[in-house]
Amino acid sequence: DAGITQSPRHKVTETGTPVTLRCHQTENHRYMYWYRQDPGHGLRLIHYSYGVKDTDKGEVSDGYSVSRSKTEDFLLTLESATSSQTSVYFCATSGTGNYEQYFGPGTRLTVT
Amino acid sequence: AQTVTQSQPEMSVQEAETVTLSCTYDTSESDYYLFWYKQPPSRQMILVIRQEAYKQQNATENRFSVNFQKAAKSFSLKISDSQLGDAAMYFCAYRSARGAGNNRKLIWGLGTSLAVNP
After folding, report:
1. pLDDT at residue B103 tops 90
2. What whole-number distance in Å separates Cα of residue A100 and Cα of residue B88?
3. Pick from A11, A61, A93, B6: most CB atoms within 10 A?
4. Please, which residues 6-65 of chain A have a Cβ atom closer than 8 Å to chain B?
């Protein structure tokens, strides 16, 4: 395992509130990713980071922002949560020499 | 754009038997990587096996092996001597070998749910 943790693991929040999910890695991997997983859609990339303070959008980035101030931490913020953002969120990392990605345990977010 | 298709939403196998999960992909690139990931009920995504497109030899990891047919753009996963712990969702994924930025992202299939019957 690549030593990836996510917090919180479960969260219930109300529509319109901001939410921040945290991903923390201990492998000194350069690349970090946020995905969401929904039935019928598989895993979809929200945002990714290719270094400290270097981030870019994925395929479903609307309504989400990210920040990476340290190599080990990658934060995902839902600026104003909506019910359509109810999902399981995964963080993943990969090193410069890696082809594969390693995943955190996931966060189940419910927006009511 | 690359796509990955897993045509079998659900499969089942008897314990100790062999099962093959299918994956096809579409790409115009010649150099890329392919992966199979396992997601058990715990939800953790676990890398099962990977294949580099430039390698003709099929990858093998213990009871897991792949049949990589580059011309046919097919990448199936064979699980031998199936165990109860193999029950999971299995995802096929593609990654371009071109290095930077958006090319590093994984393209995912929708998964195959595998049940193992005792």
Report:
1. no
2. 20
3. A93
4. 31, 33, 40-45, 48, 50, 56, 58
